[in-house]
Amino acid sequence: xxxxxxxxxxxxxxxxxxxxxxxxxxxxxxxxxxxxxxxxxxxxxxxxxxxxxxxxxxxxxxxxxxxxxxxxxxxxxxxxxxxxxxxxxxxxxxxxxxxxxxxxxxxxxxxxxxxxxxxxx
Amino acid sequence: xxxxxxxxxxxxxxxxxxxxxxxxxxxxxxxxxxxxxxxxxxxxxxxxxxxxxxxxxxxxxxxxxxxxxxxxxxxxxxxxxxxxxxxxxxxxxxxxxxxxxxxxxxxxxxxxxxxxxxxxxxxxxxxxxxxxxxxxxxxxxxxxxxxxxxxxxxxxxxxxxxxxxxxxxxxxxxxxxxxxxxxxxxxxxxxxxxxxxxxxxxxxxxxxxxxxxxxxxxxxxxxxxxxxxxxxxxxxxxxxxxxxxxxxxxxxxxxxxxxxxxxxxxxxxxxxxxxxxxxxxxxxxxxxxxxxxxxxxxxxxxxxxxxxxxxxxxxxxxxxxxxxxxxxxxxxxxxxxxxxxxxxxxxxxxxxxxxxxxxxxxxxxxxxxxxxxxxxxxxxxxxxxxxxxxxxxxxxxxxxxxxxxxxxxxxxxxxxxxxxxxxxxxxxxxxxxxxxxxxxxxxxxxxxxxxxxxxxxxxxxxxxxxxxxxxxxxxxxxxxxxxxxxxxxxxxxxxxxxxxxxxxxxxxxxxxxxxxxxxxxxxxxxxxxxxxxxxxxxxxxxxxxxxxxxxxxxxxxxxxxxxxxxxxxxxxxxxxxxxxxxxxxxxxxxxxxxxxxxxxxxxxxxxxxxxxxxxxxxxxxxxxxxxxxxxxxxxxxxxxxxxxxxxxxxxxxxxxxxxxxxx
Lengths: 121, 663
What we know:
The complex is a heterodimer of chains A (121) and B (663). Chain A is of the alpha/beta class and 121 residues long.
């Protein structure tokens, strides 16, 4: 599992370079997540390369959110493929994590201090 | 001479056709059932005789007027009646087995022990033990009719019951009506039978052989409660088992008495036909099979059996008991029943249980029988073979049996399958305790023929003393590559008989030819993956292949994605929980029809029922339990079984959307 981190304004945009976030890839992802700067800031996870996610991948996303929010930051997702989006919806995780259609929309939401959680807009 | 066979025949007629099959065509004897000739010959005057069997009238006609042929014909009819009775009992038994594991265990315990087959008293004791084990505090007895008196054969009560007139009481009613009786809510101190006076509930089932009540199995309890159909099911099964044992004992005693050679051949052929051999399977995916079993004068212990596992997997076992006569045949029957126990994958209610590897099956059978075989001073050579036509492989375990022959269609060459694993061959069953059996895998392809046979074939002698030999068999197989398997084995056995003409055949001739006919488009696919990085991706590619293979474009992309998810979850559960993260193999099979797609995941890890995982929380505080929740969202059926062989089997099924253009 590779990931690419770019800093855009005040947010860290992390692109996951993995085709699948499954039981074999998720533990590696959890390890890498610790190295993302800034731990207390805003993180946008771009999943457009991910074609498949399973419960361990979903679990890793939840863990990621806990770590970031625990440190006072925010996690948002963007670029979800329909299969990945469907998996999130199946376990109702789309209600727990903010999901945006594009990177631009997500970054705009970070900038907008009044942004409310609750999904795509 | 023409012979008629087919599904329209009554069980008796079918059995009669089987029994008549070995009779050479030139014998001038016609046999008719229900107004049609099973076996006819040129019409002429001569002698006609009619006889009754199982309510069917059989007409015998000897155009050349030979009385002794009519006697022979009558003996065939008697033999056929027994065969059809025993088959009917066996079928009833199988129906019964389908409903209850307790019955299954009991029957294997009783039917599988060769020593029990030779000792009816011990067998009846075991039958009763299984019956009273149904519930703590049960008492019971086995009664047998001897002449005009009802005699206790076995009992589990404080005091031995005494013999009595069979006309009275609950046992009397069971014998009269020839069906089981349950009496619950009795007030006690009631009835004709002294041992039942304190009983609050009683259940009894008749012991029927050839339609006649021979005795009864009775159990009772001194405290109030309810006996139900489960107990009756067990009692009925146990009674069929006991009846089979008594019937075999009767046949054995008749044979020991040895009044007439004809009779012995008849009894031997009967046991062999019913217990040791079976019908040649006709509808095996990708295979065509031919069998020949010619009984010698002395009954031999050759046996064979076939097990269908579905998925293009088919097993056969061919064995030969050292020694001759009825005892050898009974040992053969007992060993075969153990192969049936471990080799069969037919579970209750039409479910398929997973199949163990051939080497595991043979090792398990040997563990069961070796002690008794050593005690009896007998051993059994056998070959156990598994055809996997979709994977194009033959796996076999040779236990000191004659070498099978493999004609390879691609190179038109016959290989002698002399099995050696690290320089050693497997020992026959019953040679030594604690033997581990090894297996060998070979590729097979369309057009290949594999011939299995007993040593009666290669050790047939010409009048001058020379053996027929394996080379002659190999030549026959090579020459017969264009023939249907049945024609091939018929020709080989005919050839052997001509070769030893005059010298007499001393052994049974048993021969099975299996032709690989090709691999039809499967409605099944399977994959095996190891616990290693990338294996879950392999699982998903497999799911994609399956979705593409199901005809009619039944899956939209979202559905394929959902199936990816469900199967990935189930597979990572296996790797994580059943194998604890360590090494292990997972086999996934997919099978479908018009309405349903079903996946079976089979692994050899620790018992793990995914449905028992705790439910997930959706507040983000924990991410456990999501996997099974996802599977539940996607699949309509989740069914976990831990097999007796120590395999986890998880079945996941999904209803298919209607085909394009279907309403």
